Amino acid sequence: MNTTIVIGSQWGDEGKGKIIDFLSEKADYVIRFHGGNNAGHTVINSFGKFPMHLIPSGIFSKKAVGCITNGTVIDLEVLVAEIAMLEKAGIQLKDKLFISPRCHLIMPYHKILDRLYEAAKGKAATGTTGRGIGPVYADKVSYNGIRIFDLLSKKQFSEKLAIQLSVKNKIIKALGEMTLQQKDIEKTYFKLIKKIMPYVKEPYPLLQKALEKKKNLLFEGAHGVFLDNDWGTYPFVTASTVLSGGITGGSGIPAQKLTDVIGVVKAYTTRVGAGPFPTELFDEDGELLRKEGAEFGTTTGRPRRCGWFDAELIRFAAQSSGYTGVAVTKLDVLDSFEKIKICTGYTLNGKKVGYAEMDAVMLGRAKPVYKTLKGWQTPTKGITSFEKLPEKAKAYVKELEKQIGTKVSYISTGPKREEIIVR
Ligand code: IMP
Fold it and tell me: What does each C-alpha distance from 423 to 58, 219, 335, 343, 411 come to in angstroms?
């Protein structure tokens, strides 16, 4: 049996979709267990190119059954559109997709509140994706959420919605926005739920049985470790637990059942949204990374901030999630660089300091300590064996391993499924 989790090790957008797509060939179950449509995985395969936001990316594998478990928050409109996109591409979802009725629903007021909080923060805004993620999780933990379970009964849904609107509309009105009408929301949500009903079934018994039968489970982490609500660069984070232990709350599977924890890292670093980023580049090297790496967000299209590889961060990610292996993506993006830097640690006020000891303000002031390596300046695109990499590229990967203290098990050398080195 193999129970694997794939985790983003930076600030999201590490290329998890491709690694998941690759690993899902062997999976019996592929599972999304946290976050919502703030996540975006691009999957390119023989069916085409798919921006995936909610349905597990591994769904394309013939035998894999997809589960969206209780930790995930759902925007019904997005889910219905994603189901339609897959069906149009010929992916049969009947008996292949299971959605937990425990999932909380993103309501129209969550998206409005997301925008209003961001506007109120002004320059200190988090730079959210605007999908209502913070407010839906806030309602979840303060016992004000509405779940798919509630939508199974029109009466139950309407009663809960009325209570929420009695509070939310007051806030919305006070902040100068148009209030929401109960009838409009009911009409939309009653229509949408019908479209997902064929897939609503608690995946918990299915997954427990799968563990018993020693099936292969693949958990698809969203976002990145430094967006984790507790361990990320708070408040420039997302609302869910990104660390591997999140599978317990998010799906009811004990974390100790994990056999493989694969941390996905870009060969450099990117971030969308605000918050500290010690190795960020503001010069032509940063521009080159953005251009060569096509660094624009899958979910929002925003240009991503780019910088050097930060080993201090990845060491923390590997420790706190118990990585058994690392997948380095986009190595080929570095092909044209003469010199490549790796951040090996930080100093703050002249003293060595670790990531875990700092908050976002301190991290914003921390100075990276760099080790400079020579670039290979030879194309690596599409290379599929480690031996065939230029010597300097091998040296770069080995230095990353040394710095992180974890084996690099996969190296991605291009966007296609087969452009990968397995070590
Ligand atoms: P939210 O998750 O929309 O509330 O956004 C909070 C922060 O997390 C913002 O900086 C977003 O840009 C960032 N974020 C959330 N999900 C992702 C992701 O999947 N990739 C990259 N950034 C993300």
Answer: 22, 21, 20, 24, 8
